[in-house]
């Protein structure tokens, strides 16, 4: 099979049609196609996000108006934010958008709406197992303001800890039967 990069018109023609003019035209066309194909690799921004350098990611995020983007973030987080920009615009204002943002930026966690934990109407909490510092919480709260709907308010962060321990549980059962024999109670 001939690759597109190496194809010539003469490869497609029978021998009786290969004149010197056709061979020259075929060679020139091959060179022109190679010139275009070499430059196509450079403009594949949206399909090559995983291979783009960090400075191009910053420009691409600016162009797409990536909502939660910060130049100080890790490059893998930047890539995920840019990939999810358009789907998040479609889900903006929903708990799903906040949950996906939480997974992308912090790593794991869940969103609990007010009716799930007995809070005030239109409030929500974020529960995570990840280690959060005060400045991370403030930065993430600012990012959430761009994602959530206008009426909802962040009630706070809950830190979930997984504690493993051995527990010994004992159980006993005692059944007392009382029997009446001749009017007297006997055990």
What structural class do helix, strand and pairing data support?
Answer: alpha+beta
Termini gap: 96 Å
Shape: elongated
Q: What does the largest sheet look like?
A: 3 strands, mixed
Helix-strand topology string: HHHHHEHEHEEE
- Proportion in β-strands: 5-15%
Helix percentage range: 40-55%
Number of domains: 3
Strand arrangement, major sheet: 1-2-3
Unreliable runs, pLDDT <50, ≥5 residues? none
Number of helices: 7
Organism: Anaerosporobacter mobilis DSM 15930
Protein name: Phage tail protein, P2 protein I family
InterPro entries: Tail_protein_I (IPR006521)
Write the layout of secondary structure elements.
Elements lengths: L19 H21 L13 H11 L10 H9 L1 H7 L3 H11 L4 E4 H4 L5 E6 L5 H14 L5 E7 L19 E3 L2 E3 L1
Parallel strand pairs: 2-3
Antiparallel strand pairs: 1-2, 4-5
Describe this structure in words.
This is Phage tail protein, P2 protein I family. The model has no long low-confidence stretch (mean pLDDT 80). The protein has helices spanning 20-40, 54-64, 75-83, 85-91, 95-105, 114-117, 134-147; strands spanning 110-113, 123-128, 153-159, 179-181, 184-186. The strands form two sheets. Strands 1-2-3 form a three-stranded mixed beta sheet. A two-stranded antiparallel ribbon has the order 4-5. Helix 7 links the parallel strand 2 and strand 3. The chain has three domains: 4-43; 45-85, no CATH class; 92-160. Helix 2 (54-64) runs parallel beside helix 3 (75-83). The N and C termini lie far apart (96 Å). With 187 residues, the chain is an alpha+beta fold.
